[in-house]
């Protein structure tokens, strides 16, 4: 039987609220520090080749995400148009891909920008986690107002070695991680949609690369995604789906 705990209001005042406020303030501070560390954008006009390649990537991405709305024959024709090994729009010769990769790593400004972005994420979060782990380790900071399964114990009770505590209780360390990955919506309201505080996206970029903004490498990545997609036309099942939706509405 899981134990029911009574949380002291002092934990709310001296653990939960300060931790949340500090995470928000650190995110806002990192946003402005990242803007100051960012290299100035040159005033010269963009390269027409890069603009064209970027538009091709957007069109191919739209085809991949909306492939179910066109017949199989039309999708196959468009897929060949983009991914043909001879003259496809997304096909990048091997020597061009190697040149683009070499240019990316030989550009000191790009390498410096990547290092600044990684430092602006790693250093504050490392210091914040050390602060939380030193001062608030072992605290039960909050309780989720709805029941959860045992699978959530490892996510919500990090740092608490008691298996008898109900899963809905959240430790201070887990509250830190929930704030770390869950404040994107708040930062979008405060700083705008184009903010530099999305840690989840930054970690994915650090792990997967994603082309690092090089259009030529983005072409190859989009070609691989278009090659593996399986076409599934939505029209044959559209009538049944509409019928099911109408029945649900009539039952209400």
UniProtKB/TrEMBL annotation:
GO cellular component: EMC complex
Any one GO BP annotation for this protein: protein folding in endoplasmic reticulum
Annotated TM spans: 14-33, 119-142
Compartment annotation: Membrane
Annotated InterPro entries: EMC3 (IPR008568), EMC3/TMCO1 (IPR002809)
Organism: Eragrostis curvula (weeping love grass)
Family to which this protein belongs: Belongs to the EMC3 family.
Lineage of the species this protein comes from: Eukaryota, Viridiplantae, Streptophyta, Embryophyta, Tracheophyta
Keyword Membrane: yes
Superkingdom to which the source organism belongs: Eukaryota
Name of the protein in its database record: ER membrane protein complex subunit 3
Membrane protein topology class: Multi-pass membrane protein
Assigned keywords, A-Z: Membrane, Transmembrane, Transmembrane helix
């Amino acid at each position: 039987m899981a134990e029911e705990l009574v949380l002291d209001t002092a934990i709310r005042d001296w653990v939960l609220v300060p931790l949340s406020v500090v995470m928000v303030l650190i995110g806002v501070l990192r946003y402005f520090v990242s803007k100051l560390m960012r290299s100035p954008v040159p005033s010269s006009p963009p390269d027409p080749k890069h603009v064209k390649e970027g538009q091709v990537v957007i069109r191919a991405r739209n085809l991949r995400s909306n492939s179910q709305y066109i017949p199989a024959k039309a999708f196959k024709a468009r897929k060949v148009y983009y991914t043909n090994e001879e003259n496809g729009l997304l096909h990048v010769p091997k020597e061009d891909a190697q040149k683009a990769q070499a240019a990316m790593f030989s550009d000191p400004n790009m390498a410096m920008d990547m290092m600044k972005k990684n430092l602006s994420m790693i250093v504050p979060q490392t210091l914040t986690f050390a602060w939380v782990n030193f001062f608030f380790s072992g605290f039960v900071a909050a309780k989720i107002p709805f029941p959860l399964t045992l699978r959530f114990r490892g996510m919500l009770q990090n740092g608490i070695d008691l298996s008898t505590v109900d899963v809905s209780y959240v430790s201070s360390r887990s509250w830190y991680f929930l704030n770390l990955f869950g404040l994107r919506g708040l930062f979008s309201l405060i700083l705008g949609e184009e903010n530099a505080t999305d840690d989840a996206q930054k970690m994915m970029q650090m792990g997967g690369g994603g082309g690092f903004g090089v259009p030529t490498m983005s072409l190859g990545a989009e070609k691989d995604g278009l090659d593996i997609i399986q076409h599934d036309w939505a029209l044959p099942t559209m009538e049944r789906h509409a019928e099911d939706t109408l029945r649900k509405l009539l039952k209400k």
